[in-house]
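Illustration 12: Helicase-associated domain-containing protein.
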Amino acid sequence: PVTSIQQLHVTPVSKSQARQRSGRAGRVKSGVCYRLYTEKAFKGLPSRTIPEIQRTRLDIPMLQLKVLGISDVLNFPFISGPPPPLVEDALELLFACQALDRHGRLTSPIGEALAEFPVDPKLGRMLLASGDLECSEQALSIAAMLSVQSVFHIPRFHRSDAFKAHKALQMREGDHLTLLNVYNAFLDSGKDPEWCRENHVKYAALRRANEIRKHLRRALKRRGVEIKELDENTDEAAVTLIKCVLTGYFPNVAQLSPGGKYVTVRGGQQLTPARGSVLYGSGHRWVVFHEVVETTAGRQMREITAIQPSWLQDVASHYYKYTGADAVRSRAESGEDNKKQEGKQGTKFRKLF
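Figure caption equivalent — predicted structure in token form:
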């Protein structure tokens, strides 16, 4: 499996799934199941579905095992054991987020706090950093919006109206601050469904984000994080918020290559921005992204924000280092840990916005 990448592929069901589904035709009384494929096609289906633990990210399960005191997770007797690369990738992320120490032990307070948060460790790390940066109110809103499906709606027969409405809500720095702007505008409207219709955003998704935000806020307060709010109308506030995002998502940094694609600093993956991104086609040299999704159009970054590479030294000096006066690369790939070198990237610094 390819680690750290969501893959959205349409795949055939397994034989066991097909048999289970046919049982629905006879749940109350005898019934008939019509399968819209040939017997030959059925015989060609895989016998069983691959267990989820063998095809999904394991950072949260690994964190929970550490909380339970399981030290040797690589040799844990899973019923269906995950591939070692998935386990190693999860442990590497948790170490990078400072949830685990060099001996694989849960850290305090960061590791213990991340284990309590019902979110991706990178998102949890961002929320913890917001306390020190005094921007927790905004960080909570961004985290909540990242936790729901896209809030933007593009109706089939009113595409131009939707694009115009969405553009009015966009922030030049990127998608994270755009999501914050949408959420704040929703609150300013009094959570009005009519405002959502006029601006072609999804009311149900925003309501869900509002509920998630309340839950995350309670979790932060339980950890003793002082929740403060920034003045959002300054460039300094924008930089602080982006640095907060970067503190959690520093592993997800990419730079623009001469060929027009983005390349991750760690791993050298070639990526393109999702078409719905504020930064699609913008040409920003350095970006941080929320996730990578593999689709039929290739590997795409979702929720992207422009950064200055010098900020990596401020928020993730344990993960990145400068090579020379004007380049940055992953410490792991420069031989400062036991991982093999996978690639390297560097570029000159310049102001992004």
